[in-house]
């Protein structure tokens, strides 16, 4: 059941590093069409742009990294306070959202947000999430290990997640998820789109 008073199924989309809301929406045009085809006016899609500008080419990131570090090796994500505030503001003003979809850095961010929702009082609580090409958020290793030691079966909040990765992804290591044939990308074939729609709505 939708969390929206008007019955709309609201989905939040978080782009990867080097993108913005507009470019990410263009990449996911086929997915958007599939979701609208299944739900029509009953679905509302919200694409947002990360707060940190990379250079001056309309490319953004959810955080910056120390020199020569990757998201799964860094000891800190620089600028996360601004990102947390932005997500909470978006949730309060545009949500609540039934689901969230993220790619690469956006998918890693979802992992962090869900862990916070499970461990503390945090407004971000979607029922479902799809993570494309995520990696381990190393600065939040402690929180995730704390979750692993918890009995989540007794938690009042229990989100469903779908992890999608490629065996030949050379950006983020494919440790845990569903297998796809492409690299660090989002599959847009009919079979995959049907699976994503079914997961989000059924």
TrEMBL record:
GO cellular component: cytoplasm; nucleus
Keyword Ion transport: no
Protein name as annotated: Serine hydrolase domain-containing protein
Superkingdom of origin organism: Eukaryota
Coiled coil residues, start to end: none
Keywords annotated in UniProt: Hydrolase
Any one GO molecular-function label of the UniProt entry: hydrolase activity
Matching InterPro entries: AB_hydrolase_fold (IPR029058), FSH-like_dom (IPR005645), LovG (IPR050593)
Domain Serine hydrolase: 8-180
